[in-house]
Amino acid sequence: MRIDNLTPLMARSLLAALPKAAPGFPIAGDEPTVRAAPMQGAATNQPVPSVAMLVTLAAADPAIERRRKQAVDAERGVDALDKLHKELATGTPSVERLREVVEWSENFEASDDPVLAGILSDIELRVRVELAKLDIQA
C-alpha cells in the first residue's frame, strides 16, 4: 500500500506504529513507500488526513484490541459454562472443568464498554451461580 502526501512527522509515526498494528505485514524492501508532503509554510500545522492513513491509525487503536480480547474472554466463559452444563447433565463434572470455570471467574475483568460490560457481568453471575450450586468458592 502506498500513502502519499504525509508530513514527515506523520510518516515517522505511521512507520513506528506499523509493527504494532500488523506484526507480519509484508514490506517490500526495508520500509514501505511513504511520500512526505512538501512543507507549505508555518501556517499548515495539521496534515489533511487521508482514508488510508485513518484506516492505518484505526488498526493500531489499543481500545479495539482490548475490546477484542474481552470478547474472546467472554466467549471462553460461555464455552466453559456450556461444557460444565453438559457434564452436569450426564453426571458429575470433571475436576478439570471446575478448575476452568473457577479460573475464568477469578480472572474476570469488567469492561469499560457498557454493552460488553453487561454481557460479561451476566456471564460472571451465571458462573458464580453454577459454582455456588456445587458449593465451590471462587
Task: Please tell me about this protein's structure.
This protein is mainly alpha-helical. It is built from 5 helices and 2 strands. It has helices spanning 8-21, 51-59, 62-90, 95-106, 114-133, and strands spanning 3-6, 34-36. The chain has a two-stranded parallel ribbon. Helix 3 (62-90) packs parallel to helix 5 and helix 4 crosses helix 5 (114-133). Mean pLDDT is 76; it is low at 28-32.
Task: Classify the secondary structure makeup into a structural class.
Answer: mainly alpha
Question: What's the helix-strand series?
Answer: EHEHHHH
Strand order of the largest sheet: 1-2
- Total number of beta strands: 2
State the separation between the terminal residues, measured CA to CA: 50 Å
User: Radius of gyration in whole Å, from Cα?
Assistant: 24 Å
Question: Percentage of helical residues?
Answer: 55-70%
Q: What is the averaged pLDDT score?
A: 76
Form type: rod-shaped
> Are there runs of 5+ residues with pLDDT below 50, and where?
28-32
Strand content: 5-15%
Biggest β-sheet: count, sense, barrel?
A: 2 strands, parallel
Count of DSSP H/I helices: 5
Describe the SSE topology.
Layout: E1 3-6, H1 8-21, E2 34-36, H2 51-59, H3 62-90, H4 95-106, H5 114-133
Helix pairs in contact: 1-2, 3-4, 3-5, 4-5
